[in-house]
Amino acid sequence: IIPAVEVFKCLMECVDTDKFALSRKGLRDGVFYEELTKEFGLSIFPNVIEESFYELATDYNININHV
Fold it and tell me: Is the pTM of this model over 0.85?
């Protein structure tokens, strides 16, 4: 586990950020939406992270109003 944490720490330093968000499918969905809307010239995509949180809440029966 510690080596994996170090990898993420180095990555965050390389991209100069202090935030990290984990999504079960953020990159995949982001690429999908980009391809889906490419011919329409749209640059606004659904909030993949927020949708992932809602999906996790549903999967684990978490009341989103109490989170």
Answer: no
